[in-house]
Amino acid sequence: MVLKGDSCLLNGRKPFFLPEWSNEIGVTPCLILRVSRLGKEIAPKFADRYYDAVAPGADFLAIDIAREAKAQGKPWTKALAFDYSLAIGEWMDKGDRLLVIGDSLLISPEQAIAEASKVMTIRQGDLIYIQAKQAPQKVQKEQVIRVEHDGKELLYCKIK
Known about the structure:
The protein is α+β, with helices and mostly antiparallel strands and about 160 residues long. The protein has a single domain, classed as Alpha-Beta Complex (Fumarylacetoacetate hydrolase, domain 2), CATH 3.90.850.10. It is about 20% helix and about 30% strand. It has helices at about 65-70, 75-80, 95-100, 110-120, and strands at about 10, 25-35, 50-60, 85-90, 90-95, 125-130, 135-140, 145-150, 150-160. Strands 1, 2, 3, 4, 5, 6 and 7 form a seven-stranded mixed beta sheet that branches. A two-stranded antiparallel ribbon has the order 8-9. The radius of gyration is 16 Å and the shape is globular.
């Protein structure tokens, strides 16, 4: 589990600026859940009641920093939880989650809520993100990350 502070959020159509302290930034698609009520130690069968909306996301990772931290047995925090490292798209009804990312998530939304609520109390407005199973893809300046469905743009993020 990775915790990201609110400074990690990149909302709207704002660009993602490549940090100077990393030479290899990657991105992984993800699904973001918006928590709708207070809960602790939630069973997976009840977890559906604890979120009300989903959004597509782009989770940025400093691949070179993660590789170095892993080799040294150190935490990956700097590689994962830096400012503006999680781009959030447009919020949709939670029933539309399969339209956003399909069934390629590492774990189900219900399992993610159950796991998070084991170690902390989740509160209305908290965001839980679930990465896709694919490995991070390296990004370059001027690249655009976009998620569309039925001609509607749900996520747009230009790399600067």
